[in-house]
Amino acid sequence: MLLTTMASSSTSLFLPTTAGAAAVATARRHPSFSHRSHSRVPATRLRRAPRPVAVSAAASPASSSLDALIFDCDGVILESENLHRQAYNDAFAHFGVRCPPASADPLYWDEAFYDELQNRIGGGKPKMRWYFGENGWPSSKIFETPPSTDSDKEKLVNIIQDWKTERYKEIIKSGIVEPRPGVLQLMDEVKGAGIKLAVCSAATKSSVIMCLENLIGLERFNGLDCFLAGDDVKLKKPDPTIYITAAEKLGVESKNCLVVEDSVIGLLAAKGAGMSCIITYTPSTASQDFTDAIATYPDLSNVRLEDLKLLLRKTLVTG
């Protein structure tokens, strides 16, 4: 039975509602699930990330083969993993999401599990669909008994995701979040050189817009040649659709695009679209297998446009 719709009240920037806070605190002492008791996230082969690649732009004259630089958002423009996790846990507490339904405490995704989850499954709704499918659809304030029809399951996921998105926006708007090192400088170099600039994210569109407006500024955001979010494509990363669509909108060939990603999921999407990819990894993705990336970096602070032109030119020449 449908009991309520998404609440409009917001919580503090770092804590759920009073009742939710107590539930989360309890959940931390008594987790509502353990890695031994529920199915593992779909596995991806992992190993230590390669050392950052140092490339000298002086080794070759500037090349015109780089026609577009495409950034992912979460993990690339900002380190957002814990912010998303906080917003999900706040949503689970707010709606009293219990999975399995007999749990005494609201669902709580701890840091280790969320790192694994978000590095295997792209997009918030797919994460929840997978988790509930593996561990049992939950009881909640939205549905007193676990939803059994596809339409009710989708309604549950949509309501939780919408509330989570608004919560995430509150955190971003608080001013405590900054772009990762080197991002703004590289974006400005690219635009100044007349090369096309894009952002492609699997996250909810309103959430990505909020991030970009607050982190890169309105002028840079409005100056993007292409912006795509999860709402714009049917399939999420690692499916390559979002990058294929970006190349079409930009009017460039995939081979002349270079993607900046932070995870194997994004790398697979870029490669599937026929694009080269560099990785700027985060603590939660540093151990992943980035063999197929043309370069890896801890951040973009020492990466210049000429480096990227040279990297892509070498990649195109060697095939």
TrEMBL record:
Keywords: Hydrolase, Metal-binding. One of its GO terms (molecular function) is hydrolase activity. InterPro entries: CbbY-like, HAD-like_sf, HAD-SF_hydro_IA, HAD_sf, PGP-like_dom2. Gene3D superfamilies: HAD superfamily/HAD-like, Putative phosphatase, domain 2. Pfam families: Hydrolase (PF00702). NCBIfam families: HAD-SF-IA-v3 (TIGR01509). Belongs to the HAD-like hydrolase superfamily. DOG/GPP family. This is Haloacid dehalogenase-like hydrolase domain-containing protein.
